[in-house]
Amino acid sequence: MSSKLLLSRGSSSDDTDSGVKINLKKIICSVTSFKKSDSFHWTRESRNLTGFQALIHLFKANIGTGLLGLPLAMKNAGIIVGPLSLLMLGVIIVHCMGILVKCAHHFCHRLQKPFVDYGDTVMYGLEASPFLWLRSHSLWARHLVRSLLIVTQLGFCSVYFLFLADNFKQVAETASISNRCLQNETTMGMLPSLNLHLYMLTFLPFVILLVFFHNLLMLTIFSTVGNIAILGSVALIFSYITQDIPNPKNLPWSANWQTYSLFFGTAIFSLEGIGVILPLENQMKYPSHYTVILYVVMPIIIILYVSMGTLGYMKFGENIQASITLNLPNCWLYQSVKMLYSIGIFFTYALQFYIPAEIIIPHVISWVPQQWELLVDLSVRGIMVCMTYIFAMMIPQMELIIALLGSASCCVLALIIPPLLEICTYYMDGLSSFTVIKDVFISTMGILGCIMGTYQAFYEIIDQTFFSSSQNSTRVFV
Predict the structure, then answer these.
(1) 264 neighbors 459 (Cβ within 8 angstroms)
(2) Per-residue pLDDT tens over the stretch 253-301
(3) DSSP per residue over 51-112, as a string?
(4) DSSP character string of 175-240
(5) What are the C-alpha distances in Å from 14 to residues 22, 26, 49, 313?
(6) Given this model, what pLDDT does residue 472 score?
(7) DSSP string of 409-446?
(8) Phi-psi region of 256 (alpha: psi -120 to 50; beta: other; left: phi over 0)
(9) 3-state secondary structure of 251
(10) String of b and e for 415-448 (b: at least 16 CB within 10 Å)?
(11) CA nearest 34: which of 347, 373, 386?
(12) What is the three-class DSSP state of 253?
């Protein structure tokens, strides 16, 4: 089916009678890079990412809004328990990413396939298990994984929408502040305040245009710009929080389980980049180099996360807010941090959107005639962006949605499924007792974190939505 579509798409321009129509179609197709080989069903010829380009995408996919919320996450865990827990979770999640890549390579070699995605890897893993019930539900498991990927990635995109609007609103409302770097105590009421939804609506058409560029090679440019913007803003944040750090002896070493469960969700949300692991590898010229890239990039990201969370909490203590940018001074030097980070998040939207789009769109266009495929592709992308915009308008508190997504969805994809997948994949080949115990421990920890974190996040959302007045979408937890 896919080869037929590729042939028909390649010959469609030759059959067109009008030269103007031919040129127009070529221009549109070059902008959108719309071809089946770039969809969820890649071919060997579509593997054209270099190692450096994959590194850029991997770094960009793992640095998002969650980084700025880690100081508050540390407050929810404690100055000692928080950094140690974040470091441990980071190591475990990177290990689970490695498990997923290893299992995917196993089935590629065993089934003589050029690539497999996350859902296919889980399906083949269950088919290889010795349990009849698991084998009979392998197709259902693939659908479940893909559904979780769609929910998780579109959830990220909704949070990005809210983050962009929130930061531009704060910058606009502090535009009249002098250049003197004052401590950020309040930013409201300095200029007439506009509704947050109007800011989100302003971004909507630009985001829709952005997702029309969905070829990973083309997105490398956007990821590079986003990385530069985010690294610049992170450097400014570190330059401020490392000055005159108060003595942390008065900060609590640990917190209660309710707030710790919120820390768990936020940490998983920040570290969960497992959805883009296999799509990036599947597009590489030399997939065998990918494991090295993974184990080079992810430790750097973990160190960055632990440093930002710990230093940010030590700097601002109990006054830390949901996004550390809200604690920065109001002068333009540090207001530019919000602008730079927002630029990076804007371009990250396209990369996070890539995963659900490449799952949903090929199935949709398979139901329409060939001449309508491009129009349907662009229309579905626009509709999906509008869905993330609508959900962003419904979000009561950004930090609570981060905790909920991290606990309910990211935790399943990043902590629960990969260890169980390893057991199913290699059980018949023989597994050591240590590997089985290790995988069961990781999955059990993920299940407990998922249950407690989801419950606490739902509780906080309901409490703050119906029983508390909400003034700002990024205010601190009550």
Answers:
(1) no
(2) 888 877 888 888 888 888 877 778 888 888 787 877 888 888 988 999 9
(3) HHHHHHHHHHHH-STHHHHHHHHHHHH-TTHHHHHHHHHHHHHHHHHHHHHHHHHHHHHHHT
(4) TT--SS----S--TTSSPPPPHHHHHHHHHHHHHHHHT---HHHHHHHHHHHHHHHHHHHHHHHHH
(5) 8, 11, 29, 62
(6) 43
(7) IIHIIIIIHHHHHHHHHHTTT---HHHHHHHHHHHHHH
(8) beta
(9) coil
(10) bbbbbbbbbbbbeeeeeeeeeeebbeebbebbee
(11) 373
(12) coil
pLDDT of residue 36: 37
Its pTM stands at 0.78
The token duo for 447 is 């299940």
State the chain's mean pLDDT as an integer. 79
Which string of DSSP letters, residue by residue, matches 359-383? Answer: HHHHHHHTTS-GGGHHHHHHHHHHH
What pLDDT was estimated at residue 173? 75
How far apart are the C-alpha atoms of 250 and 226, rounded to whole Å? 37
Return d(Cα 103, Cα 116) in angstroms, integer.
10
Q: Six-digit token pair at 216?
A: 């990973």
Spell out, as residue ranges, where the chain has pLDDT lower than 50.
1-45, 178, 185-192, 469-478
Residues making up the chain, counted from first to last: 478
DSSP state of 408: I
Using DSSP, how many helices (H) and how many strands (E) does the chain show? 19, 0
Give 255's contacts (C-beta < 8 A, 6+ positions apart).
75, 76, 77, 78, 81, 263
pLDDT at residue 321, rounded to an integer: 82
Rounded to whole angstroms, how far apart are CA atoms 147 and 471? 33
What is the rounded distance in angstroms from the CA atom of residue 398 to the CA atom of residue 410?
Answer: 16
Beta bridge partners of 284: 49
* Separation of first and last alpha carbons in the chain: 55
Distance CA 59, CA 64 (A): 10
101: which 2 tokens? 């890549």
